[in-house]
Amino acid sequence: MTSPVRERTRRELAQEAKRRALAQATRSSYLRRLGQWDRLRREGRLQPLRDWARDAKDRVLSDHRRHLEQFVRAVRERGGFVHVAATPEEAVARVVAIARRHGARLAVKSKSMATEEIHLNAGLEAAGVEVVETDLGEYIIQLAGERPVHIVGPSIHYDREAVARLFSRHLGEPMPPDPEALTQVARRVLREKFLAAEIGITGANFGVAETGTVVLVTNEGNGRMVTTLPRVLITIMGLEKLVGTWADLEPLLTLLPRSATGQTLTSYVTAITGPRRPGEADGPEEFHVVILDAGRSRLLGTPFQPALRCLRCGACLDACPVFRQVGGHAYLPPYSGPIGVVITPLLKGMEAAGEVLDLCSLCGACTEACPVQIPLHRFILDLRHQRMASPRASRWERLLFRFWAWAWRTPGRYRWTVRLLRALARPFVRDGRLRWLPGPLAAWGEGRDFPAPAARPFHERWADLAREAEPERNTGEVADGGRR
Which domains are assigned to the chain? Predict the structure, then answer.
């Protein structure tokens, strides 16, 4: 029986246009991030900023209860309300109760992965509340009835022609495939929703414990409209989003836009500290923060606690060769890419989400890309070990990995298995490539060709290479007087 993850992967690999758009978008974002990081590296700031950001997150995680109590107290002192939800269902119930108390019929939302995680839109719509996504990318996929393909760019797999067709179908008038025209249409439609909505809903990039401030980092003006026009504002914030002080925000706000979109600065940084005060011209009359646990607290004090540092910047997705091929829809919702491979089994359990661990090549690019230095590839390896140790793991898979571990534990057995595999692969080589693989290995060859094993692997060539290099080394030593 084919696993759901493998079925989704095959489906995504078959969509050539989607794969091309995804590859182009992720490569562009990846290169922009490298440019920003190279600039910081030349200035001597990159590693100090990463260390500072890592330590800022770790300080809160290591003493989370105190910081959470400080944040809750600060929000309440400034006139806001705080609700701590242990489960996604509890978080949705809190939001629905607030909407019902105000007789709300329309809610506008700023982009939020936490609300995707708890399926908030479905919960509100079941309660009779229309929910409109106002981030342009989220608005596109809401019209399409999809979920985000990327943490930062939810609709990066759509080109302008596809968006024009989507808008034409849903808005009842033909639209040209012109980005500016499409944006103007979305602005016109969404402006009416902003003015009519009783409730605004946001996620949170950070929550500052010392002042009870929610900080949003966005590139569109929709976040400002959601947080200022509706009478009631509700923020859904994962408990890992806390930082201790405003000073702790500096490295995080420096690294986040550079890692997420390759920008030096984001367009908008919005700080919300309580509801509107007397004399203020805008802002909500009522402000609620729903702090979401949903399994996060179980990671505190465990070896996997550093996974809670995540800024949701998406840098690990853009760096991941697996994600760039299959896209976010192959993963279990809502988190995709390497961070999704780590936190989904940790939050949902190995039995429910363990199969997502197969979507990784263990190349380590994700760890190198992470601005807060989460050891993602090591965590994936640790989780795979746990999965193999489970009684539910495939017996044949366990046997295969045990044999592999035994065979490669000594140089002699390693060389023997390399020679054996080279001989076994010979019948499947065509034009210097392994075009297909037999039996249970066939899935490894889907969508790619492997290079044929070398006639003489590197370890067999090493002695010859060393002898070739010896005369050059000796000549160099004589030429510079033996000072090399």
Answer: 64-298 (3.40.50.10420), 396-451 (no CATH)
174-191, pLDDT tens digit by residue?
889 999 999 999 999 999
> DSSP assignment, residue 283?
S
Q: 463-470 — which CB contacts under 8 Å span 24+ positions? A: none
User: DSSP letters along 150-196, please?
Assistant: SSS-TTTT--HHHHHHHHHHHHSS---S-HHHHHHHHHHHHHHHHHH
Sheet with 268-272, strands from edge to edge, namely 242-243, 206-208, 213-218, 268-272
Per the DSSP assignment, residues forming a β-bridge with 200 are: 108, 233
| Confidence (pTM) | 0.87
Q: Which amino acid is at 459?
A: H
Residue at token pair 């010896």: 470
Residue 422, phi then psi, degrees to nearest 5:
-65, -40
Determine the angle formed by the axes of helices 395-407 and 411-425, rounding to 10 degrees: 120
pLDDT digits (tens, 9 = 90+) for 246-270: 999 999 999 999 999 999 988 899 9
